[in-house]
Amino acid sequence: MSKLLEVKDLHLKIEDAEILRGMEFSLEKGEVFALIGPNGCGKSTLAYTLMGINNYHPQKGEILYKGEKINDLKINQRAKKGITLAWQEPARYQGVTVREFLALGLRSKGEEVTEEKLRDALNKVAINPYQYLNRFVDKSLSGGERKRIELASLILMHPELIILDEPDSGVDIVALNNIADMIKYFKDSGSGLLLITHSEEMLQYADKAALVCEGEIIRQGDPADISEYFKSFCFPCAKEEECETEVAS
Question: The ABC transporter domain covers which part of the protein (predicted)?
């Protein structure tokens, strides 16, 4: 049986800047794989490339989803196959209510939109449906509230592959607890999760992890080991010595 996601020798250059340099890893169903590294190392670029966002098209390498090469698929085609990206900064939708936003998740799966389903999803992320369903998904909501509503949308869509880009960025403690709960929820239900972060605290939710430096994976394995290495050698950056030694070994 094929893996859920395989990334093989992925290279991406935007204008004259080489951002991804031979990225390579795999992800199984029901597995949480964390990619950690400092800001600017290429993690979010990888997320955009996997999702098929405009201008993020690899010049070399393969992205395989359930054994199928998807390099040339557009973002909507990847979404239909069950791939979803949860953005670092949840989007604001002027004039769109929480009810309308969540209904899109159900319709994307061809499911009937019911009040019960919408309320259940919001309750799972500690959002009171009676207070929020008719509110707008705009600047009147905090980043933490929008993050939780985005998680509720994921519950309704139930994608097979979820890419979480810096899920703990700028959120309140309630949203952070919900993120941990949702990671477990999706893992238990068989979804694969790619967790992109610069915070070693998030590694506690991962089954395996990798350290990214300047567009490359320089170390991969047990999350606790990766966390310790990240804390010990990445502040300040010791790439010139320690990381080159690790790659050579």
Answer: 5-239
For residue 232, the Cα-to-chain-centroid distance in whole angstroms is: 25
| pLDDT one-digit tens code per residue, 5-57 | 999 999 999 888 899 999 999 999 999 999 998 888 888 899 999 999 988 99
Could you write out the three-class secondary structure of the chain? CCCCEEEEEEEEEECCEEEEEEEEEEECCCCEEEEECCCCCCHHHHHHHHHCCCCCCCCEEEEEECCEECCCCCHHHHHHCCEEEECCCCCCCCCCEHHHHHHHHHHHCCCCCCHHHHHHHHHHCCCCHHHHCCCECCCCCCHHHHHHHHHHHHHHHCCCEEEEECCCCCCCHHHHHHHHHHHHHHHHCCCEEEEEECCHHHHHHCCEEEEEECCEEEEEECHHHHHHHHHHHECCECHHHHHHHHHHC
User: Is 226 within 8 Å of 36 (Cβ atoms)?
Assistant: yes
Superfamily of domain 1-81+161-179+191-233: P-loop containing nucleotide triphosphate hydrolases (3.40.50.300)
State both tokens at 222.
């047990």
**Residue 131: CA count within 13 A, CB half-sphere:** 7
What tokens appear for 77 in the block? 């085609």
CB contact at 8 A, 35 and 209: yes
- Taking Cα atoms as reference points, which of 198, 168, 239 lies closest to residue 35? 198
CA-closest candidate to residue 195, choices 215, 234, 223, 214 = 223
Predicted model pTM = 0.85
Average pLDDT over the chain, rounded to whole? 85
